Amino acid sequence: MSSFLHQRSLQAASSDTFELSPRSRQNYQKPTVALLSRGPALLLLLLSLLVILGVIFPYLQSPISLFSFKSWSSGSKWREYTLPDAAAYVAKNNTLIVCAVSEAYLPFLNNWLISIARQKQQDKVLVIAEDFATLYKVNERWPGHAVLVPPALEAAAAHKFGSQGFFNFTARRPRHLLQILELGYNVMYNDVDMVWLADPFPYMEGEHDVYFTDDMAFVKPLNHSHGLPPPGKKGRPYICSCMIYLRPTPGAKLVMKKWIEELQAEPWSKAKKANDQPGFNWALLKTAAQVDMYLLPQTAFPTGGLYFRNKTWVKETKGMHVIIHNNYIVGFEKKIKRFRDYGLWLVDDYASESPLGKI
């Protein structure tokens, strides 16, 4: 948004406001004496000015200026905030970390953010809010880090895995990612039922188009292939659509476009309660000959079906884990309990580490 570009001019204006003319300087050589001679009223005025400066100064130092902040923090104004605006504000080193969240998932968002903040990567995070309650709440506490791409979804629609609301929620993902790629950014997508134990970016080695993780729970060799795994019983691979890293290349854009096509070809129905992941796998399989793909190491990015169910493997690979995904389980309370059991539900004791604070 254009107000971001006026930071320097606002700062210059604020300094120029207090520049004194030559005549003023002559009269202002002994400020203490002048103030005392004019009585308490001027002292009160000076104190008031100091208080006002103390309030506005932090915003003058921020990419969101004072005047912009007043306007955008007033709830409904965030409706005008666009994905290009948000990406330009949040991106660092031309890279974004993106999640898509509805209001019910805010505790998971906060838990995920704490783990990212511990890796000093939180400034890259852009929250794609799927309802206005999430948009307002995140931007109230962390201005500029949430954006809503219309249309907004019903707040409670995406709660149940396998529901049409859940499908509608997840089916928007490739469109969001494609738009970010078209803007020229690298983008890492995460579901918020994840916890970072280390910085994942060193693992995005090479210059591949698409990076992803295997969702199969069987143990792979430590030196397993980084190519797309072969199709399973259903004729397609079993790659997780919840952790993806994309570079803004023709190959990555092709995968996103094919993913969108697959979701349009297999919409949700009562008979076939689809989700977005099969479409992603078909897209990968059908574009594999044209796209440079990279399967991330299982030791660093294990599926929940392995990490939470194979204690022997966890001990053998201790110190290698980077992002833990709390999948292979359905239900908010069950996911929270499992995170607590493994010491990964951080919001109970460390909410102050999140950019959002305690929600």
TrEMBL record:
GO terms for cellular component: Golgi membrane. It is found in: Golgi apparatus membrane. GO terms for molecular function: UDP-xylosyltransferase activity. The chain crosses the membrane at residues 41-60. Its EC number is 2.4.2.-. It is an enzyme of class 2 (transferase). Keywords: Cell wall biogenesis/degradation, Glycosyltransferase, Golgi apparatus, Membrane, Signal-anchor, Transferase, Transmembrane, Transmembrane helix. One of its GO terms (biological process) is rhamnogalacturonan II biosynthetic process. The keyword Thylakoid does not apply. Signal peptide: none annotated. Belongs to the glycosyltransferase 77 family. This is Glycosyltransferase. It comes from Sesamum indicum. The lineage of its organism: Eukaryota, Viridiplantae, Streptophyta, Embryophyta, Tracheophyta. The gene is LOC105173115.
